[in-house]
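pipeline stage [seq->struct] | target=Ribbon-helix-helix domain-containing protein | organism=Sphingomonas glacialis | residues=96
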Amino acid sequence: MTSPMTVTPPAAGFIGPVKRSVTIAGHATSISLEPVFWHVLEAAAARRALPLNALIAQIDALRIVAEDPPNLASALRSWILSDIQAITSDTHSQQG
């Protein structure tokens, strides 16, 4: 019999959204995301050798053409999760 997995809080604790201003296609907009999402977005931009605004603009362009576009913050969170899953999947397939 296996024991249930323990659920623990994030190492940095639970922190609410932080609002930042970004420029997309020459227009300033503010986005509220939790700090952990900002950190992951910054790392994703660095891996792609892009400024953070450029990565957000690319994600926004994909969001806009979606059949039922969510708000930008939701699109960013969804994209982050998808990106992490792709990285994890790639890592597992290279190890196997």
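stage status: PASS
auto-comment: The longest strand covers residues 18-24. DSSP finds three helices and two strands in the chain.
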